[in-house]
Amino acid sequence: MLAFPGLSRVLIITDAWEPQVNGVVRTLRTVAAELRAMGKTVEVVGPDQFKTIPMPSYPEIRLALFPGRKIAKMIEAFRPDALHVATEGPLGMAARAYAKRHGLHFTTAFHTRFAEYLEARARIPACLTYAWLRRFHGASAGVMVATLSLRDELAARGFEKLRPWSRGVDLDAFHPEPREAWDLPRPIFAYVGRVALEKNLHAFLSLDLPGSKLVVGDGPQRKALEREFPDTHFAGARHGEALAAAYAGADVFVFPSKTDTFGLVILEALASGLPVAAYPVTGPKDILDEASTTVGALDSDLRAACLRALDIDRTHCRPYAERFSWRTCAERFMDNLVYLQKSSA
Q1: What does DSSP say about strands 162-164 and 143-145: parallel, antiparallel, or unpaired?
Q2: What is the C-alpha separation between 24 and 17, in angstroms, rounded?
Q3: Which of 20, 204, 222, 310 lies 20 to 30 A from 105 at CA?
Q4: What is the C-alpha to C-alpha distance for residues 210 and 199, in angstroms, rounded to an integer?
Q5: What is the Cα–Cα distance from 74 to 104, expressed in whole angstroms?
Q6: pLDDT tens readout for residues 275-333
Q7: Rounded to the nearest 10 degrees, how much is the dihedral formed by the CA atoms of 296, 299, 301, 306?
């Protein structure tokens, strides 16, 4: 199935949308804006347009209730040239079912490691979830993945029609100056993002490091971690210029997650002039690649990575981040889309 550059009306259906704060939402919101700037007509359908219930164990995420009929009406009313099903939740399942029922083509994306998260939270074997995910994405004309290492991993698990779709960073929003004047002992090792089990924050906060540890963000694990690590400074969620200054005011950005599919916050940190310390796993090893010694440190010993990153010249970080453009990301997204035309089957 070939992509068509003439697509003009794009419908994106996602279970991850505002007011959620995460990489999926930032990606879809920014790509939609870039596509509109390119002259495309784009509509994003999210849970905010449906009756919802809180997701068990993660109430910040809302799940749409019985969206099937409304999704069908919205697809028919918008008359898209291309349909992209971004997530595997209730809205994604409803859109997938509609497309299959009418013999329509659509694309999907693999944003989140639900298999590992469910195994950690509910002890559901990852192999069972991956079997379901493989079936879900198997109905699409193409599965967009953020990194080459994730593509290889999913291919080994039996996923097919995998299409590369990297990410970008807002270079106007994130910059090395001005810096937050944190009233904390230096050096400051900072984490920015959701405070949740899957982010592996315990691995970072339990490290013996000089100076201070800083967590910028909020989430279901925050209160428990505040109790367990009283010497860590929890600054809460930041947005806009305050977020950019929070990044720039630290000395090292620590990314302890082993389950992210990319890691947008890594690019935001680099754009803010902040060296990165991370495990050599999918996401960090794809973003940093061979440049890890000049803008960050990858090591299976996270403490060793943090200490090496402390010695990096932070003036190298911003130029490296400038390689990642949201316009390029949006163009690749368009290249991956397919017409919603009737299947010949």
Answers
A1: parallel
A2: 8
A3: 20
A4: 22
A5: 15
A6: 999 999 999 999 997 666 799 999 999 999 999 999 999 999 999 999 999 999 999 99
A7: 0
Read off the pLDDT of residues 226-238 as tens digits, 9 standing for 90 and up. 999 999 999 999 9
Spatial separation of the C-alpha atoms in residues 88 and 140, rounded to whole Å: 12
- What torsion do the CA atoms of 103, 46, 169, 218 make, to the nearest 10 degrees? -140
> Which domains are present in the chain?
9-168+326-336 (3.40.50.2000), 188-321 (3.40.50.2000)
Q: Which two tokens stand for residue 149?
A: 């290492």
How far apart are alpha carbons 21 and 91 in whole angstroms? 18
Contact 148, 164 (CB under 8 A): yes
| pLDDT, tens digit, 9 for 90 and up, residues 143-194 | 999 999 999 999 999 999 999 999 999 999 999 999 999 999 999 999 999 9
Alpha-carbon separation of residue 93 from 120, 126, 164 (angstroms): 23, 20, 22
Q: Whose CA is closest to 325, among 22, 34, 70, 16?
A: 34
pLDDT of residue 220: 92
Q: Where are the alpha helices (DSSP H) in 231-343?
A: 240-248, 264-271, 284-288, 292-295, 302-309, 317-321, 326-336
Q: Are 147 and 165 in contact (CB under 8 A)?
A: no
What pLDDT is recorded for position 291? 60
How many residues are listed for the chain in this entry?
Answer: 345
Residue 290 confidence (pLDDT):
63
DSSP-assigned beta bridge partners for residue 13:
45, 85
Tell me if 180 sits within 8 A of 273, measured CB to CB: no
d(CA 308, CA 312): 7
What's the pTM?
0.84
